[in-house]
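Ticket #4471: complex job returned nothing on first submit. Input attached below:
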Amino acid sequence: MDFLDEIVGARYELIDKIVSKSVEKKLKQKTVSDLIDTVVLDKYLGIPIFLTLMWAVFRFAFDVSQCFSDAIASLFSIASNWAKLNIPCKVLASLVGDGVFGGLGFILVYLPPIIFVFVALGILEDTGYLPRAAFVMDRAMTKIGLHGKSFIPMLLGFGCNVPAILATRTIKGDVDRKISIIINPLMSCSARLPVYVLFAGVFFAGYEGAVIVSMYILGIVLAAIMATIVRRAFFSEELSPFLMEMPDFSMPSMRSVLSGAWLRTQIFLKKAATILFAGAMVMWYLTHFPWSATAGGKLIGNSYAALIGHVVEPLIRPLGLNWKAGVALLSGFMAKELVVGTFGLLYSGNVCAGIRHDFNPVTALAMMAITLIYLPCLGTVGVLKSELGEWKWVGFVVLYELVLAYVVAGLIVCFGRVM
Amino acid sequence: MRVYEVVYMLLLSIVTLIFGIAETLSGIFKININYIPPDVFGGFALIVISLIFLRGCILDDEAYLFVGSMLLAIFGLLYVLVILANAMDSLISRNGYSFAIRPEILLLPFSVLGVLSIRLGDNLKDKTEKLWGRIK
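Support reply: We reran it on our side without changes. The output follows.
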């Protein structure tokens, strides 16, 4: 038992003494909330139960949403073919068929799993499980230099890093809050999900769920490592004490879960109509021009995108990635969803076959890890600046993420080659 | 806790442990076992549920029967939803439809019984006591 445990034990002993002298208890039947608390806060089973619930969340998000994704994919494929056949001006036909329906449409194919993640996280929030998860994780979090309260923003980061970083405002200690913000971009937000679904579907058929969950776990592990390093390297302040009020468990209301999910989906759709649309247009231009040299987007190797990609290629070549991956990763800086949108344009409608040709299972894993770790998107950079206050910290986040992405992807490739 | 609840919990614990280990091993070593999907994480979830029941037996606490059964029911319902979603997918894509019944689905009725057992047990106990009182 360490010193901290002894202090906590002594505190609870004192509390019990005071309560036993001052409070008269009447025996009452345990409520359902009490029953659930007994088990989910269990010393040994708390964390495994949390992991089990997260697995259920992801199975729900990926497997149940699959049919909706396929329906959207079929719709956009029909729309794209219609545009290419019926619009007389070839440039305009390509813009609508490849740029709008091929690029932006390919991103929207992944909207259903994103909505399902929002719904599942909404249910967990509404039942009152999240504070319990924070309580259960407190011991593990203390070991890595954070406390339980940091875990809720980390979980919210699975939806989107921007509100998750804003949610760190509930953390009282300035240092604890700063560390929670710095590591939050490592939490795998829903925008990275399309990349995982795409690569896992192509290379790990039958094991997609396990591979995707591994990426989420990788994010948590890396965040833990970075939190330890950052606290030891930059801050000497002790952890602030962890106090948290536990609301009773309650049945989630369908209305509130769906309205919460709809609100988050609206934000995604607004993003799709603005940033993602603009990004898809820029990427369409870069992959289809000069028009004559690319023969209207058929010879992408002669496009501006290829030019940019070849500049980045020497950096990522040791990781087994080619210029196309480089272009996709660069576009992801604007918004991570654009990575799949760019693949949609680069492989013009035949994404799965193209990816199967250019990647293998090891490089696919490396690509997924890079997408998870490298560079926060523009929106996250903005909120990092507003919450951390200084550009030097934002610069630090960007820098450590780039280095970490390279190191982790390198390790995956080396390990894969050895095996 | 009533004896039949402990026995029920022990049975569920053994069954979920067997299925959990089978799913995990079949996932890791790619062994083909009839009616058992190769699913490492799914197997892990079943093993956790089994441990919940086992701990409930050791601590003699009905809360573990309630939560363990609830988790098992969540997974059972989830896989029913997956089967329905796959059916819809095959309708949309006009592909042939094939589905596999998972052990979690087979255990669904038993898990629902576990969830209800606490309240049912209390009601049954009240009614038996009342009846016993009248007989006396």
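Chain A has one domain: 34-237+254-418. Closing as resolved unless it happens again.
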